[in-house]
């Protein structure tokens, strides 16, 4: 049954109550819906009609109280059934070939399985090679960082030893200078005392030298 051009009569609906008196008059708005095509179930991708909103179907500018949505619901229901049939056919056509297909179809199915397995194995090997390559690169980076750290430590130790050697040499030079000054000071004091001892009031007997 096609829904193209479905229209409801625009005559008023009269309802009779308990005492045979009309209660309410509600004009019915004509509803025009597009026809739902019969979708042939196949493996190819088919375009399904868009889903309709039962509360706001196409062709109706203004919603009224007595708006009937039977056509829109039927449209959506037919659309759902067609999509379910297509999915069911796609699902069952997938496993029909290896069990009930011809020899060519079975061989084609096995070839696809082999190709899929080869692809998975190649992807796995490529991933493993990539992981090994990244690990080797990371190891090289760590080795280079370790080598740089060792060189920096050696340079620091060398600079420290050079600083300590210079510090030692400077201290030694300062100590030797101080010792030399002390010797000179003592020798000057000794000469001064000898000069003083030559005076008679201090060394009147001449015994002090």
Descriptive report:
The chain has 209 residues and is mainly alpha-helical. It has a domain of 83 residues. Helix content is 60%, strand content 4%. α1 packs across α2.
Task: Write a short abstract of this structure.
The chain has 209 residues and is mainly α. It has 2 helices and 2 strands, in the order ββαα.
How are the secondary structure elements laid out?
Blueprint: E1 13-16, E2 22-26, H1 70-100, H2 103-197
Antiparallel strand pairs: 1-2
Would you report the number of β strands? 2
Q: Give the ordered list of helices and strands.
A: EEHH
Which class best fits the helix and strand makeup?
Answer: mainly alpha
- Unreliable spans are 1-19, 26-45
Instruction: State the separation between the terminal residues, measured CA to CA.
Output: 152 Å
Across the major sheet, the strand order is: 1-2
Major beta-sheet overview? 2 strands, antiparallel
Number of helices: 2
Chain-averaged pLDDT: 77
């Amino acid at each position: 049954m096609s829904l193209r051009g479905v229209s409801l009569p625009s005559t008023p609906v009269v309802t009779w109550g308990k005492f045979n008196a009309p209660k309410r008059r509600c004009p019915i708005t004509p509803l025009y819906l597009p026809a739902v095509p019969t979708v042939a179930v196949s493996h190819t991708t088919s375009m399904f009609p868009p889903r309709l909103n039962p509360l706001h179907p196409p062709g109706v500018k203004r919603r009224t109280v007595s708006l009937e949505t039977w056509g829109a619901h039927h449209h959506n229901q037919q659309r759902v059934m067609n999509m379910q049939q297509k999915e069911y056919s796609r699902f069952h056509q997938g496993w029909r070939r290896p069990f009930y297909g011809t020899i060519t179809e079975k061989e084609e199915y096995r070839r696809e399985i082999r190709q899929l397995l080869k692809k998975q194995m190649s992807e796995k090997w490529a991933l493993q090679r990539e992981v090994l390559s990244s690990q080797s690169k990371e190891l090289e980076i760590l080795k280079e960082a370790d080598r740089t750290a060792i060189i920096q430590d050696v340079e620091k130790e060398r600079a420290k030893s050079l600083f300590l050697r210079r510090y030692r040499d400077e201290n030694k030079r300062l100590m030797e200078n101080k010792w030399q000054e002390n010797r000179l000071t003592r020798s000057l004091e000794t000469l001064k005392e000898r000069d003083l001892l030559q005076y008679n009031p201090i060394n009147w007997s001449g015994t002090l030298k």
